[in-house]
Design goal:
The protein has 342 residues and is of the alpha/beta class. The protein has 11 helices and 14 strands. It binds zinc ion (2 copies).
Amino acid sequence: MQLYNKLSAKERAELIDKAGKNRLTLSFYQYAKIGNPQVFRDHLFITWNALDVLGRIYVAHEGINGQLSLPADRFNEFKTHLDTITFLKDIRLNIAVGQDNKSFLKLKVKVRNKIVADGLNDDTFDVTNKGVHVGAEQFNNLIEDEKTVLVDMRNHYESEIGHFKNAMTPDVDTFRESLDIIEDDLKTHKEDKNLVMYCTGGIRCEKASAYFKHKGFKNVYQLEGGIIEYTRQVKEDNLENKFLGQNFVFDDRRAERISDDVIANCHQCGNPFDVHTNCANAACHLLFIQCDTCKEAMENCCSNECMEINRLPYEAQKELRKGQGNSNDIFKKGRSKALKFK
Ligand SMILES: [Zn+2]
Ligand SMILES: [Zn+2]
């Protein structure tokens, strides 16, 4: 029985084109006690592989976190399968705003220690004592309250291309770092302010809100379903959209445009621009913002050094990379001094 992905991304892309079917991209998560993650993982792989599901799914003793795509005409079968799993019955599925048939090209279901690498020791606080979940309308009202401090629980490369008006956006590379920065900034307001938080799909706030309550914050709120669900509700209920720019997402689409505002700038020339790219030098692969003009002038590289390396023949580049390990992660979140406007 096949338990692992066997096709290359290229082979898969060709199959998707050939099938000519529309695919849906969606995400969901659930904290739940899973006794044997490996067995559960295998079960999901076998069932979902047969449904032509592609994506990145993490399973742990503490629950499941999935981002995936599937043919739209198999959605009902997929939903029916989820409903057979007690803790996934009627779960909210965050359906992506912009659809791209190639958002995922492999099915990877992995067993992890945690479903989010949050750097927290869960034994030190009550993870079930969460903040109050609020929907889009209540969130909109809450963030207009002068007693409210709105914090973005995502990393700098996410919030730089889009965030809520007046949100505090910690300049961090990891979730763990942001917790201390936020606590320190608000240490004298633990009781008199509303701490309102949001992230992409809501999962990071599940732990963050409990953590801040443990740290003594009295009024903690979290945006239910994150920016993805907020956007859906705003559209459906005709509410005012208070999110500016693009929502960074962790698949090959990289971002969903939520409003026409461009709040970022090209890291090389400083002109308004909000689309991330990866440095073309395979040994660097830095995630950064580069406008079309700079992309052409810099040959899609983040620095002159990278441009020089990228011009070398493939074999010579490979020689240079020896012992450095492979960097295929498109979300490498490095920073570089070569980028003037970063
Ligand atoms: Zn530029
Ligand atoms: Zn580079």
